[in-house]
């Protein structure tokens, strides 16, 4: 079978597919308050998204994560889940969600074939949660988490972005919560994607090492050799099988192990989160009218555009003007 390999001999087996740029939250590190969203005509249809997924799986991609924006604001997203879940060769279909609309949808998503869920929770204090997300409702998210567990999702992972003087005093509470819930938890260093004026990203930076040290002091941690083939470094606890992970684009560069590419909801194949190199799949599908073999060939060639690494630098204005919500986080 043809596989995707870039010019640094990295095998690409993981696609993050953005199903919408819209969201029912406005997290301060991800969006500005007044976001402009894409006109409907520029957004891929569910059928086009399903086609892209099918072509990537035919090229050896084994894992797909649906993301956004908030995937659960996309109408009929369960149809897409069902289409992708049935693709022969796909080993894992996952979704990253803010959880706010999960409670009524968890069962349907599970039945449609979604296997794994990441839910983003940056604070366990309702007022603070609202401040960070600008409009989010913590109770709805916690109801979503409960519904997902009841629906049978295993090893749900919580994602937390930690900002200095905002929620860094909640690291241990978040870990305690994850342990109580039987969820894994990953801490993410804020990345300079899109121009935000709500806070100074340099001042808000908290390194993964600082977070790890605090967790180790309270709970004790054991480094784990396991890897998901991605950027996370994992640790375990002696008394629980919950894992804590760190995504540290600043303090621990992970590019040499990169196994992923992204497709935005306008159909831009992005080879790297921190670079603009891309291929316009929507143009190929809509204007050029390529068949699946043509799409496969274009994607194989595009792997040569994948850069060796990102160059995130918090001391400079963001070089990537795309917001994370546009990119597909
Ligand atoms: N709306 C969904 C959610 O929040 O989980 C999925 C999309 S969101 C862009 C995916 C992840 O990216 C979330 O865990 C969010 O916290 C993270 N994120 C967003 N902006 C970020 C940034 N500038 N730096 C680091 N992580 C970011
Ligand atoms: Fe929406 Fe997710 Fe971005 Fe928050 S992080 S604004 S929930 S897309």
Short structural description:
With 329 residues, the protein is α/β, with parallel strands linked by helices. It has helices spanning 46-58, 77-85, 102-112, 126-133, 138-151, 171-181, 201-204, 208-219, 281-288, 292-302, 324-327, and strands spanning 4-5, 11-12, 14-18, 63-67, 92-97, 116-120, 157-161, 184-188, 222-223, 233-237, 240-247, 260-263, 268-270, 278-280.
Helix content bin: 25-40%
Bound chemical compounds? S-adenosylmethionine, iron/sulfur cluster
Gyration radius, rounded = 19 Å
The main pleated sheet reads as: 12 strands, mixed
The CATH C-level class name: Alpha Beta
- Mean pLDDT, as a whole number? 91
Q: Find the structural class using helix and strand composition.
A: alpha/beta
CATH architecture: Alpha-Beta Barrel
Could you say how many structural domains there are in total? 1
Number of strands: 14
CATH H-level superfamily: Aldolase class I
Unreliable sequence segments: none
Number of helices: 11
Beta percentage is 15-25%
């Amino acid at each position: 079978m043809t596989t995707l390999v870039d010019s640094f001999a990295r095998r690409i087996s993981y696609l993050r597919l953005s199903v919408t740029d819209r969201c029912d939250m406005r997290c301060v590190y991800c969006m500005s308050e007044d976001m402009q969203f894409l006109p409907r005509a520029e957004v891929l249809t569910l059928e086009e998204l399903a086609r892209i997924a099918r072509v990537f799986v035919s090229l050896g991609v084994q894992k797909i994560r649906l993301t956004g924006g908030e995937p659960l604001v996309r109408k009929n997203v369960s149809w897409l889940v069902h289409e992708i879940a049935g693709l022969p060769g796909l080993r894992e279909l996952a979704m990253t969600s803010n959880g706010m609309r999960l409670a009524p949808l968890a069962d349907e998503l599970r039945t449609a074939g979604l296997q794994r869920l990441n839910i983003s929770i940056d604070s366990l204090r309702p007022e603070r949660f609202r401040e960070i997300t600008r409009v989010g409702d913590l109770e709805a998210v916690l109801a979503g988490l409960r519904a997902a567990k009841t629906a049978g999702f295993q090893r749900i992972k919580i994602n937390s972005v930690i900002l200095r003087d905002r929620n860094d005093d909640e690291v241990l509470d978040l870990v305690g919560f994850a342990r109580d819930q039987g969820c894994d938890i990953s801490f993410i260093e804020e990345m300079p994607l899109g121009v935000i004026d709500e806070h100074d990203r340099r001042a808000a930076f908290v390194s993964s090492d600082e977070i790890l040290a605090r967790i180790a002091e309270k709970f004790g941690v054991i480094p784990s050799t396991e890897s998901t083939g991605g950027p996370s470094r994992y640790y375990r606890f002696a008394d629980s099988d919950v894992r804590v992970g760190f995504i540290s684009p600043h303090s621990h560069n992970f590019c040499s192990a990169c196994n992923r590419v992204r497709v935005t909801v306008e159909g831009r194949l992005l080879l790297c989160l921190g670079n603009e190199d891309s291929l316009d799949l929507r143009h190929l599908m809509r204007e050029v009218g390529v068949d699946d073999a043509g799409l496969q060939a274009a994607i194989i060639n595009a792997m040569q555009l994948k850069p060796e690494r990102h160059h995130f630098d918090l001391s400079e204005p963001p070089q990537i003007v795309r917001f994370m919500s546009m990119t597909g986080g």
